[in-house]
Amino acid sequence: MPGDITHGDIMHGAVMHGAVMHGAVMHGGTMQAWAGQDRALAALEEALSASAADQVEIFVAARTAEHTRFAGERVHQPQTIIECQVMVRAVAGTGSARVAVSSLGAARDAVVAASEMARRRDGGVAAVLGGPTPGNPVPVNTVPVDTVRSNTGPHDVASYAGFGRPAGLWHEATLAWDAGARSALAGRIMESGRPAGVTSAGVLTAAITELAVATSGGQRCYAEATEAGFSLTARAGEASSYVADLGRDASALGIEPRAAEAISQAAATGEVIAVPDGVHDVVFGGLATGELIGFVPDFGFTAPALAAGIGLAATRPDAILAPPDITVADDATVEVGLPFPVDFEGTPKKRVELISAGRVGRPVSDRASAAATGGLSTGHAHIARESSPAPEAANLIMMPGGASEAQLIAGVERGLYIQRLWYNRLVDAEAGTVVGTSRDGCFLIEDGKLTTGLKTGRFTESVLGALARTDGVGSRLISQPVPNVWNGCCSAPAIRVRGFRFGSRRGKD
Amino acid sequence: MPELAAAHQWGDLAGGLATAGPLLDAAIGAAAEGRASYADVRLSEAEELRLYAVSGRAPDERIEGNLGLGVRVLVDGVWGFASRPLRDASDASAAASDALRNARAAAAGSRERVTLPLRPAECGSYQTAAAVDPFAVDAAVRERVVADALAAATATGGVVRAQAGVNAKRSHRYFASTEGSRQEQHFVESGGMVLAIAAGDQIAQRRSYPNSFHGNTAAAGWEYVDGLRLTEQADRVGAEAVQLLSAPVADSGTADIVIGPAQLALQIHESTGHALELDRILGDEANFAGRSFIGPDAVGHLRYGSPAVNVVADATVPGTRGSFMFDDEGTRTRRTMLVTEGFITNFLSSRDSAARIGTESTAAARSDGWGFLPLCFATNVFLEPGTGSTDELLDRMGNGYYLDDNRSWSIDSQRLNFQFGTEVAWEIRNGKRTRLVRDFSYGGITPQFWGSLEASAGPAEFATFGMPCGKGEPKEWGFLSHGAAPSLFRNVRIGVA
Fold first, then answer.
1. Is A507 contained in some domain?
2. Neighbours of A270 (CB within 10 A)
3. Domain total of chain A
4. Which domains does chain B have, with CATH numbers?
5. Is A85 contained in some domain?
6. Are A221 and A316 members of one domain?
7. What is the pLDDT of residues B120-159, one digit of tens each?
8. Cα distance from B64 to chain A (closest Cα, Å)?
9. CB spacing of B474 vs A65 below 8 angstroms
10. Which of A137, A427, A484 is closest, CB to CB, to B497?
11. What is the residue range of A43's domain?
């Protein structure tokens, strides 16, 4: 696999990329964008001309993804999945409506249909929908954002300690990681564990994500990005280990050596025991930490929650939650996880610190919720499936510290190492309580070292409480996808928590 | 194919196999030409309508349409799959070409090869019965239903946020295989929801109706939405959310409980449906969705629950999100007992997984539209009802709790150790509801929990709930249904959260 590509190379590569045929996924085995900048923007331009509404905004969200799933003795699900959604929002007076289709060719019809729906709703009962504080449709974006191309890199990119130089979104190494290379790697991974009795299951993914936005207010933008990710569960009897990571550049993931580490760990574990009930000092690996901090937005860090007076941003602004080295931000502008420049409304994505140096920070917003709370959108517009449009913290990052994971473990005399959490659900947003289980690759820590492997253990704990009791933050960020969120990603380091309960909580102690 | 009812006469694929056939043939032909020993194609067009209103925000009405196809091939015993939106006829052969390329590439990583028993062609057609086409309902009617429900949900002081919505979906699904199968199915769904959140000092409580998972959606027309009586129920859930703010916290310990059908539907989903998915049991989902405590040799001898536990998968029962004639690899559905008097009697299986244990598919291969591979999902899986009323069941229990509507859920990756919280619970004393309690939770170990099932109420109290389910990599949604009547469980661990 090619090594790191410099920013200049990316610019050059993207110019070349723009010259190749769009609309075909494969060309000589190389993955390509489904829509492409020129084709997408031309289609949206043409579609906008059909508008009979006061305002129209359109986005095209497309994704071409190749997944190589494997388990046991076979690559059982090698897949190429192309998805494309063209979503139109039309505004006519007090009425608004959205219509979505799955091809650029149908964009014009969607504009016509959305315009008709919006006009029909103008002045109707819809105008008073919205409850106690009715809101009118927000106008479309008019910010004359220049076309954002993958080769220009994220806009407004700031450098943060520990992240290094921001880079572009487009990596040829990811494009070169084709089905043959992924299948061969899957085969090597499965084969390598076999002599030690380790079975492996996992997925290797390469993808291209695109977003184009055009509005009747004159805004035009387009961005495209590569994506590479992997995850692997290695199992030897009831012992297991897990590893995963996600980013724009396949060559930066180091999959094979990390897979080898997981296989070795599973093979060496031996018998596993039940997680001892009680309160423990716990080192959470980066993936487990990511699962925990994924709940932080639910604690009131969205503008609608602020408007409703629910949650931390509304009820405890600037309150101290955790030590000052704890910062949890939503930040798609840095080279971590899946950076991306704009949201569905064409608003540039801004860094928002939900927990800022241990204190209650700010909420994320889209244009509607920002208008309702008297601010500007932070670039977090999102439309989840079967749900109302609502701002979404899609690129969470917990800022890294200075310790290695081994150093965090070395600081625990007797406790637990938790590599992976599973099926975590919010119980109480006010208290930050979450229920879930540990899963693969969990161990006792004895005298600062991992010893006996652990079975699955259940917990019901406050994430806020855990962050408050964190006394060590790792230096390495690990990223994982966030399901049901477009371009969703969560990146976190290992943390050490002094006092985290596993097992049943009897009474309300 | 009998003439399509009016609710199904829409879109580019309403013309039946006469319209879809050439595309299906093109994909199958390309796959066969590429030396696939087996291939199937799913061509689908879908449209969803949603009108959601959230207090404090402008309402959102949207119609989302998609049209595309997915091709699956088996080449030298290795699967390959590819899907794409449909722009023109060339996409059919292009998808087949991508699928073939994936299968050939995957051979390098596959020691084990698939042997798929061939079977005769299966042809047929199906359409949902919908009395009132939900897409033909006047927009003003939809808006009035939602506006009234939202107003009712926020009528009680203390409700700080509410949401109301209605939804409908229609789809045409076509299937063809190299075995000669040609199928068409036409679906219509309708649904509605309301949610109220009340907040006090450092406390928030929620209530929802008819279910806490996106409300409820049925395979039916607008008549289903009318039957929900959203406004009346919105008023109730708003008031209950406020009442919960001052309700005492539920006790912890052990107690007898009667679980209502909405919560029991999720209990069935998590601890029965998922545990019986054969692809999971065989390790295909070990990396993400997980495994199962049930082994592939469990049929006929593994005790899963008490003799009162009878669980059936039956997609032939109409009216739910899990109702269909053929699954997404063309297997005709039939009624299948999964648990009979407490013993495991079958699995939720696909052709691939069934072949690996030498049985036949139970028609549980479902996919998220045309874009994703069929995986083993629950279909229309329900706990068979018992006899009598809920009141009689509460009488039988004596003292305990009646609980319903899920608030939080968690189960381990082997579907063994679970913990659920419910939105609401009532203390039961001498068979009568007394006070409301908040933050109710219960937990257990799957076979022990189901072993404590003593009785279920009768068919009159039975209710089904449609829900989406996430599985696979990439994660896809399966749309399915679970049902139950309120049921009595003894000595359950409560207050675990």
1. no
2. 11
3. 2
4. 6-245 (3.30.2290.10), 253-494 (no CATH)
5. yes
6. no
7. 999 999 999 999 999 999 999 999 999 999 999 999 999 9
8. 4
9. yes
10. A427
11. 7-264
